[in-house]
Amino acid sequence: MSMKIKEEESIFPILAIDSLTDVMVSANADITLAFELIHPEVFTASDGEIDILSDAYVNAIKTLPVGYIVHKQDWYVEAEYTADFNNPTIKNGNYLAHANEKHFGERPHVVHKCYIYVTRPSMDAKTRSSKNSSLLKRHLVPKEMLQQSTWDAFMDSCAQFEYLLNGSGKIKARRLSPSEILGSEKETGLLDNYRSLSYNDRSLLETETSKDGSLKIGNKWVYMYVISELNDFPPAVTNSITYEPYSSDRYQIPVSTGAVLGIGMPFNHIFNQVIMIEDRGTINKNLVKEIKRHHSFSEWEKGNQVSMAYKDDFLLEMEKNGRVPVKAHFNVMIWANDRETAEAYKSTTASSIANLGFTPRQARHDISTIYWSCIPGNIAEIGVDNLLTSFVDEAVSLLAIETNYNDAGYSPSGIRMTDRFGYPLMVDLYDAPLKKGAIANRNTFIVGPSGSGKSFFTNNMVYYMLTAKMHVSIVDVGHSYKKLCETMGGRYITYSQDDPIAFNPFFFKTLNPSEEDEDALSELLLSLWKTDNERVTNAELTTIRDIVHSYYVFLRAKRLVGEKYYPCFDTFYDYTKVEFPAVFQKNGGREDVEFDLKNFLYVLKPYYDDGQYGFLLNSRKNIDLMDLPFVIYELDNIKDHPVLFPVTTIMIMNTYVRKLFSVKGTIKALIIEEAWKALTKEKFANFLRWASKTVRKHDGSLIVVTQELDDLIGSEVVKDAIINNSDIKILLDQKNYENRFKEIEGLLGLSEKQASIVQSVNRSIDHKRPPYREVCILLKDYAKVYGIEVSPTAYAAFTTRKDEVEEIHRLAKENYHNDMTRATTAWAGGERPGKQQLKVNSI
Fold first, then answer.
1. Cβ contact 377:50 at 8 Å
2. InterPro entries under this entry (predicted)?
């Protein structure tokens, strides 16, 4: 049996909003200013940072006059991801972007919005009972609420409150406008949303209560749990707790205590947190009176003795430590469209409250009046019977102070990933962080043990980089990107005895390289000339730059008179041997002092003409590599060669550096897998240092990928040339290294917070979701964990498992005339070679 409440429109407690001040005025003449808050992202703050957030609230609340009420209201409303196939990011991508968008379509998530209302009641809220709610009766308006001085004082207090919250640097408070509260033609307002328990429903829904303690708002079943009695509290309350699923004995991930009742419950609910400033003198007087009354009956009942001791301690704390007393109330209102689901949410809520050490108490007979009092701007009607006495810092420790990840749903330079709850995001590694000052360069260092999904992640990252029209070159030693190259129409260059990889770093169509191009050639020649630990003098560096510069002057002069010399290492060598000695002597150079020309020519002779490596620097093919958006160099066949492997790698880097200078208006990335180890020898370390510092000036990104912990530890070159010049660090699952992770912490310069976040990767995989893994992205001192989840079609395109790759190629050959796109899609749909073709839903 149910009891209907009289029509809301005639008794709705908010009368008006002042257009000049944005102040809400209630039927009782209570005045309220509303703000929207943005908090730090969940799972990214340390214990200390959570304490700073809590202190910001404590300090802001303490500035408010006695009797003011702070009502913080966190909304968590269920929604589904809406696929947008017309978005440019999807439209401009190939079939994989479309497949990923379809994969995440209708993915459930919770949209969090946080508001805080500062109320100046027209009369002492402690004199009101919930039985005197405006839901049930009207009240007279005190004269002082009509005075300008009252409003001025209120606005001053709110301004200081807002200033202190924003001044923390951790919270962003923004005052709501009348249209945001009341709504507009296009958007629903805050008050409409509360009455409909949604973000977009204008309907005025009928409300009714039932004897079982539920509230019915339209077709929504609503239940509520409250914390409004000290007896409900645990012995101690802290600002933060350890989030056990992501923590270990060594590394803990903290969340605010209130997060358990906030973002930690992924379903429809509103978490109301109410704090009213108390008068120290009044509460002192009242508590002394109550202690005397308890003392009279202390021998009769043990409960009186406990209550008397608590109040004695409270008075002592207030007087001795100057703590600020407050009245407080907390409630969680959950709802669903069907009763069975609402009952399940109710059980989860009760368990969450109990897990924090509180006693869950369901609001039954008073659910409607508490719901009514929590209408934005009406909190003064909460009633003294629903308030407990506490200190401000204890009350604040229950506030929910985290929110969802704030990455954009779409970004032209983003990578499709998910938050830790599975909601799809576009993670921008480059543009947004640079603009915000979170990074100073785009260099990236990726570390992931074998089997951690390192190559899979990199495939996914490269796909979205190419979709964003970036240029990507990859140096690989394991054929990890061959399928991606086929998918994206890149050029795949492999080394073989019959067709070795060859370059021509000297080729410039105009024969007029820029100063930076000449510097790149000079650094290359130095790396080929000098051996380990040999010092390069200023005279030697100057001379090599002179040789390079004068070589192109010579070529241009010869072309003017009709003599053609093909720019390559051979003609450079001939020029250095025949023509340059005269130039050197003319410039005042002394061969036995400033530069050993004979030694230079002798060391570089293997790269000349029919020398052992004469093919390497004289190519007449692959001279267009700088113009291609996607090139992969596969060096697996020479990875153990002591000369060819490092020299070929450094030649690829040189080609990349030239691309930096010649290709404008887009990001140019060079990804070096395990081949980077060859460059850490002192012979090539200077070039590596130079390149890693040069790329940031020309929209470049040097990305180094490795898997072995021992590769990192103890190498000064790694630390100096790679790590110190990489503002972006990406770490995959490091749990196997937990006992040795202190070494990694020191090498990467990780803070305690960052180390804990890294160690939380893959610690609590949700097996109800489609398959995914996690990765931690660090931008300087910031760290955040994302999910790597793609559609089955994208998985088929990115997989590096040998058996799966071979199976897809067989399927292409047998069933699809070597069409890898159709084969990839078919394999993702379940089709296998040698078996009857399955029907595959087109995407």
1. no
2. Conjugation_ATPase_TraG (IPR022509), F-pilin_assembly_TraC (IPR053155), P-loop_NTPase (IPR027417), P-loop_TraG (IPR043964), TraG_N_Bacteroidetes (IPR024451)
- What is the per-residue pLDDT across 133-177, written as a single tens digit (0 to 9) for each? 555 555 556 667 778 899 999 999 999 999 999 999 999 999 999
pLDDT at 286: 66
Contact status, residue 50 vs residue 254, Cβ threshold 8 Å: yes
Where do the domains of the chain lie? 2-75+110-278+325-396, 280-323, 509-608
What's the CA gap between 160 and 683, in Å, rounded? 61
Contacts of residue 533, Cβ cutoff 8 Å, sequence gap at least 6: 682
Whole-number Å distance between alpha carbons of 500 and 143: 93
Any residues with CB less than 8 A from the CB of 710 and at least 6 apart, and which?
none
Calpha distance 541→744 (Å, rounded): 36
Residues 13 and 378 sit within 8 Å (Cβ to Cβ):
yes
Written as one letter, the residue type at 736 is N
Of 434, 811, 496, 505, nearest to 655 by C-alpha is 505
Q: Exposure of 323 by Cβ count < 10 A (0-12 exposed, 13-18 middle, 19+ buried)? A: middle
Q: Which pair of structure tokens corresponds to residue 487?
A: 């998918």
Name the DSSP class of 135.
Answer: T
Within 8 A by CB and 6+ apart from 766, the residues are: 422
> Distance between CA atoms of 439 and 430, rounded to whole angstroms?
8
pLDDT tens digits, 451-483: 899 999 999 999 999 999 999 999 998 889 999
Work out the burial of residue 38: count CB atoms within 10 Å of its CB; fewer than 13 is exposed, 13-18 middle, 19 or more buried: middle
Q: What is the DSSP code (8-state) at residue 684?
A: H
Cα–Cα distance, 638 to 497 (Å, whole number)? 10
DSSP state letter for 40: P
284: enclosing H helix or E strand: helix 280-296
Among candidates 650, 654, 526, 538, which has minimal Cα distance to 599? Answer: 526
* pLDDT, position 287: 60
Distances in Å between the Cα of 49 and the Cα atoms of 73, 169, 678, 758, 814 are 22, 11, 42, 17, 59
Residue 240 sits at φ, ψ, to 5 deg, of -140, 160
- Measure the CA–CA gap between 506 and 517, rounded to whole angstroms: 9
In order of 193, 538, 541, 680, the CA distances from 535 in angstroms are 72, 10, 11, 16
For 140, other C-beta atoms within 10 Å of its C-beta total: 9
Give the number of other Cβ atoms within 10 Å of residue 319's Cβ. 11
Measured on CA atoms in the order 299, 304, 305, 311, is the torsion positive or negative?
negative
CA 458/CA 467 separation, integer angstroms: 14
SS3 for 508-559 is CCCCCCCHHHHHHHHHHHHHHHCCCCCCCCHHHHHHHHHHHHHHHHHHHHHH
Here the tokens at position 473 are 């070159």
Structure tokens belonging to residue 456? 């899979």
Q: How confident is the model at residue 119 (pLDDT cuts 50, 70, 90)?
A: very high
Structure tokens at 394: 């204890």
**CA dist., res. 488 & res. 485, Å (int):** 5
Instruction: Give the C-alpha separation, 573 to 597, whole Å.
Output: 11
Per the listing, tokens 């010579």 go with 554
Largest CA distance in the chain: 119
Question: Residue 81: CA atoms inside 13 Å, Cβ hemisphere, count?
Answer: 22
H or E element that contains 704: strand 700-706
Residue 465 to residue 415: CA distance in whole angstroms: 7
